Amino acid sequence: LYASILSLFTIVATPRFSSTASKHLSIVLSATLLLYTYRDFWPLLTFTLVPADRDEGLLLWSKMTLLAFAAVVIPLAVPRQYTPYDPKDPAPIPNPEQTGSIFSMAIHSYLSSLIWKAYRVPHLGYDQLPPNADYDRAKNLVERAFPRIDEFSGAKRKHFFWALLSVFR
Asked: Which one of 49, 76, 126, 153 has the fewest beta carbons within 10 angstroms of its own beta carbon?
């Protein structure tokens, strides 16, 4: 019941509350999955223990499958909400990297449409590229990097490589 109410809030609530409810729902479902895994799956990996809910039979494994899908697959596949680097100057069209899901970020699938587009044409024009991420704009990079790289802006004296590494960590 509690997870159902949280799922409803992720759909009908304001974006800020929806994001919080979604994260909380992921935690609740993951904790439930860990509990079922400990009670019913772990004993199958031993020689002496038996699953606590073995009387449920096929119903138990269908519940665990649905729970694993809801607790693991869906949170990894849900796109992230665009949060501008500078709220006073948000990007009119966010970069796909900024809104891609965790799974999309892990395998860089947010670039698939660009790669297919580049494969089909002999030359990919500048206007066909996705917009630059707002945290990679020159203005934002200068604000973030100069205090660590430029000695005249107050940076400590150190090798340029280590300064760059501290900026792009």
From this structure: 126
